[in-house]
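I'll show a sample.
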Amino acid sequence: MQNFGIIFNPNYKTKKTIFNLLEKLHKSKDLQFFNFPDQKDIYPDFVKAVKKNKLDCILSFGGDGTFLRASKTSLQYNVPLMGINLGKLGFLSESSLSELEKSIDDLKNNKFSVQKRLLLKTIIRRDNKMIFSASALNDAVIYKGKEPRLIDIKFYNNKRLVVETRCDGIIISTPTGSTAYSLSAGGPILSPVMEALVVTPLNPHVLSVRPMVFAAEDKFSFRLKTNGSECVLQLDGKNNLDLMDNDEILITASKKKISFIKLSNKTFFQILRKKLHMGKR
């Protein structure tokens, strides 16, 4: 690998340190770095405007939020993605700033593997018309919004009713997203390369509704009764659309998958122990 796209968290305070390191790698290892149109004004001159079909990999500098935004660009350019953690947790990141030079050497010397990760596809139908369609890496969340009222959700799997419940909302997550919001809401942890989806209710007003795991080929649909709440659809932690009574939310695994760079021999469970302190007393 020689050609790297760069996506950066612009709020990071010591950008100059990173730019100096990238310029050193550019000169010493004959690497080419490219920026994308929405961030073209924050980079020094040696980081050139991206060229179609030129990239080998995209490097995301930031935390998990930056990585999630970078995943959209990775899909657009059809190249694998690797995170360089500058944030607090960096659960999705494969490397850190102190490890960057070694990580670049591993990429140049083909000492890496590529993991394919599942994505969600979400479609909103209103009055029998599709009004919205988008993908997500971590999760799709149907949420009650600002009002302190529960919403009624009917959940169907392959057109068969699973449950009807009153709750704050519901999370539909990929295996990658199972360690994010779904985990905080009591959902199970899935190995990130599994072919499965998790449905986790948010504060259901009944003891018998619990998180459930489904096959990735299943097709989900949700019908809403908002009870006057300003209900919203959130994708990967971002509000995307205000929802209304009787909206139908259709969610499936996407036909597309995103490619993650995997450098180290660290297992998923080692990362859980280190970053989420699994099993620590």
Q: What stands out?
A: The chain has two domains: 3-112+263-275, 119-256. The mean pLDDT is 91. The chain has five helices and 18 strands. The first strand starts at residue 3 and ends at 8.
